[in-house]
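Field notebook, page 449. I keep forgetting to write these up properly, so this time I am using the form the group agreed on. The chain and the ligand, flavin mononucleotide, are recorded exactly as supplied. Prediction of the bound pose follows.
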Amino acid sequence: MISQRIPFGIMLQGPGGHMNAWKHPSVPADASINFDYYVGIARQAEAAGIAFAFVADGLYINEQSIPHFLNRFEPIVLLSALAVATKSIGLVGTLSTSYSDPFTVARQFGSIDAVSGGRAGWNAVTSPLEGSAKNYGRDKHPEHALRYEIAAEHIEIVKGLWDSWDDDAFVRDRQAGHYADFSRMHRLNFKGRFHSAEGPLNLGRSAQGQPVLFQAGGSDDGISLGGQHADAVFANAAAFEENRDLSRRLKESAVAHGRSADHIKIFPGIAPIVGSTQEEAERKYREIRDLVSVHEALLYLGRFFDHHDFTAYPVDDPFPELGDIGRNNFRSTTDRIKRVAREKKLTLREVALDAATSRSAFIGTPKKIADELIRWVDGGAADGFVLGFQVIPAGLDDFEKHVLPILEERGRHVRDQIGTTLRDHLELPFKESRYAQHAASTTTTEEAA
Ligand SMILES: Cc1cc2nc3c(=O)[nH]c(=O)nc-3n(C[C@H](O)[C@H](O)[C@H](O)COP(=O)(O)O)c2cc1C
């Protein structure tokens, strides 16, 4: 039975989720490239019972990028180093299916899973930024739908390669001189449109079977991919109803792919701001919001739309009509920004400031935030949350000291992790090998005959 506990992840993104978090006095200005700082945050989160650390990524920068994106660690390297600096927290990293090779990805995340004792997760993304193509010697960034076709094939190969060896294949029988039992080895022999891999992978399965597969992308194509493959989805819809709808669609998609709705966990990204009163929380929100000028907010907004130049528009006019701009990038996000601007009749200034310092239902007293977290989970809008604090150290301190104790009191949080692997922490079952599953279903059919 699944417990009442609410699993949390924490975004490790340099100084924080806010574009100018680096200016906040509570954080080292060089946080995005300060490994000791990362270790400190990961260990603090681990001690607080946060289930996983989550590292986002991007493959293109320019002068308009978020400042701390200009100088940041590559996720695989960061997570490998954190694997030895931590003991129980899950380690989830973003890696693009559009700009990587499945065999290498299978080895990299498989190795982090082995080194960490089964704590790894891969956030498979299709990459939104057009400029990425130029960094990988390509003429053109693949179009949104094509990116998802490539992703489906890529993930199929990675998961297939992770099952190259049955769990008991490495017998290492010194007397008989057998290192491996080759009857328990599987060649994938995958030939696709975009990628091919023969296999086997030169790495066995892990303590959790396979790394946890995260997916981030909320368009129709993203939901279909998530339903087919994802163990967990990182979502960024802002309101309860929108997340409940997304969660329902993802779970329906999983069921349509022959999976259990309980085996895909939805994690909205949220940025809680805690105050002893609502006014104090609002003051903290304003303090963070004031870190950004309108000009910077326009640049930040532009990033979702492939660095579209919003500074060229009158800032107090209604949000401009953009046609298809942004649809090949962060599609689900840009579609939402356009829809909300239209529905609420917002000006460009309002949209930009809101994007740069988004407001959420999680600004307020500890009790209000705890109530809201529980409402979202019990109301079907979330299975857990990714905590994307605007300024990480201050945000994590407040959440740990004031919100988690309330959740503990109510039986919704425990500081000791469940089990040892990331799948255990998320109450996902051990990932059986596709060959074991196949053998089990063949035996059952034979027994029934
Ligand atoms: C919540 C969320 C987080 C994402 N995180 C990343 C990321 O860290 N790196 C990245 O390259 N793309 C990231 N993406 C972008 C997706 O990879 C994808 O390219 C883009 O959102 C378009 O897909 P969609 O329209 O299905 O959302 C993220 C998307 C969402 C919705």
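OBSERVATIONS:
- Residues 228 and 257 are 6 Å apart (CA to CA).
- The mean pLDDT is 94.
FOLLOW-UP: compare against the apo run.
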